[in-house]
Structures are given as structure tokens and as C-alpha cells.
Amino acid sequence: MTSQTDGTFDRTPLIAGNWKMNMDHVQGIALLQKLAWTLDDAKHDYARAEVAVFPPFTDLRSVQTLVDGDDLRVVYGAQDLSDQDSGAYTGDISGQFLAKLGCTYVLVGHSERRTIHGETDALCNAKIAAAHRHGLVPVLCVGEGLEVRQAGEHVAHTLEQLRGSIAGLDAQRVAELVVAYEPVWAIGTGEVAGPEDAQEMAAAIRAELASLYDDGTAAKTRVLYGGSVKSSNVGQILQGKDVDGALVGGASLDAEEFASIARFEQHLVTD
Ligand SMILES: O=C[C@H](O)COP(=O)(O)O
């Protein structure tokens, strides 16, 4: 759903919590259990807003056991995957393993992978192909750093990352894809891009997809915003008609706060 000011949505919103390198598997289970209970208590309608968590690799088996055992509606994914399927790639994780662990999604090209590990658009493109080989839905992260933003080149930069990362994808894959726009200068800093910045980029991403594919395809792709999202600002951010959800870092480590973000409809300001 695209959030719109009358509170209706064209695409099913996705509220995704990226735990980054936090929460061992014992802590992770406690967090997920509390999140699910909190959402249940609030009678959360998962058809109106999908909720996903992205724990560290080492938590995934425990998360799978909990989700299956307790029949939870929260879905989950991994924070990265290899572009390869198997072999001598020490330390890497195959999409095949993630699929076996019941992952629905996988993050690709998070800014921390791009900046700390030097991941390129070409590698992201190969990782998206690997995700598809194993039935995983990629959540492709794109976004600019502060210098690019200050130079006024943020839209061109972000669309270049988008084009490079999705090269060769067919329309059906693009329609299923989730794109997360994360301005790097707003990640973990408390700095939030304004709702109009989030909407500007989400609209630019959708227009770019419409120019590469067609309007029908672009209308299906979900575009999230990420960067210091909290319950206090999510309502405004999701007001943008092209913003379909949020990729939440720090605030996803607190079950009650993340549940409140997932229930963003209560924070929307409707016309
Ligand atoms: O993946 C999540 C983003 O990097 C945002 O993180 P943050 O909410 O801590 O700023």
C-alpha cells in the first residue's frame, strides 16, 4: 500500500526491523516473543501491515522454531546473503540455507554492507539473482551519504544505485521487489529525512521503475523509508503516497516501540 493522507493504501505496507549485530539467539527469542504478544494484545491486523524482523544469522534457527511452534504471523529474513550458492566461500551464507530456515526476505546492499564491506551495485545485482534462485524476496537498500545530499545529487545517485542493482530483472521480479531508501546520514544518528524527502525519493524510485518497465509494474513495487524511524515520526513518514513502510534499525530492538511503529495507522494524520 502506498500510504495516503486518507489512511488508505495501494500496496500492503511492510514494517521491517533490522536488528543489525544485536541480540544473540536467546535475547532474540525473548524480543520476538514480546513483539508477537504485544501485537496480539493490540489485535494487530497483519493483512493491513506486514511485520518482518531481520535477526543475525545465528538467531535464525531459533526464530524459525518459535515462529513455527507458536504459529506467529511475524515473518523474517536475513541481513545479507552470498551471491554464490555453495563452495569455498568461508564465512559467507547461501540463500539456499536461508530458504531452508524459512526466511521470506533478505536484505541486499544495506548501506553498512556498502560502506564497511565495499559492496557494489554489481555485487548487489548478483545477490538479488541469488535470492531469486532460492525463492527469497530481496529488500534492496539504496541511498546517499551526506556529501551527495549536500551537493544536491541524492536523487541521481540513488537512482543509479537502483538501476545498477536491478539490471536484467524481469517485470515480475521488479513487482515483487522491496526497495528501501535509506539516506546514510539519517541512519542511527537521530537525523530523520523529512516526510517530504522520503516521499520525493520514493516517487523518484517509482518513476524510474515506470520508465524502465511500465506503470503496472512500478505500481506494485513497495518502497520503504529507513533512517531513525520511531513511533513518534512514522505517522508523518508514511503519509507520503509512495512510501509503503519502514526499515527500522535501533527502534526495532524494543518490542513495544517496534510494535507501535508496526501499528503506524494510529499515528497517521488523516485529512
Ligand atoms: O536498517 C535500518 C536502517 O539502517 C536504519 O537504522 P536506524 O533506524 O537505527 O537509523
From TrEMBL:
Its EC number(s): 5.3.1.1
Active site: 110, 182
Pathway annotation from the record: Carbohydrate degradation; glycolysis; D-glyceraldehyde 3-phosphate from glycerone phosphate: step 1/1; Carbohydrate biosynthesis; gluconeogenesis
InterPro entries referenced in this protein's UniProt entry, alphabetically: Aldolase_TIM, TIM_sf, TrioseP_Isoase_bac/euk, Triosephosphate_isomerase, Triosephosphate_isomerase_AS
GO biological process, one term: glycolytic process
Major site of localization recorded for this protein: cytoplasm
Key words, A-Z: Cytoplasm, Gluconeogenesis, Glycolysis, Isomerase
Subcellular location: Cytoplasm
Positions annotated to bind substrate: 18-20, 188, 228, 249-250
Pfam families (UniProt xref): TIM (PF00121)
Assembly, per entry: Homodimer.
Function: Involved in the gluconeogenesis. Catalyzes stereospecifically the conversion of dihydroxyacetone phosphate (DHAP) to D-glyceraldehyde-3-phosphate (G3P).
Stated family: Belongs to the triosephosphate isomerase family.
Entry protein name: Triosephosphate isomerase
Species for this entry: Kocuria dechangensis
Organismal lineage: Bacteria, Bacillati, Actinomycetota, Actinomycetes, Micrococcales
Gene: tpiA
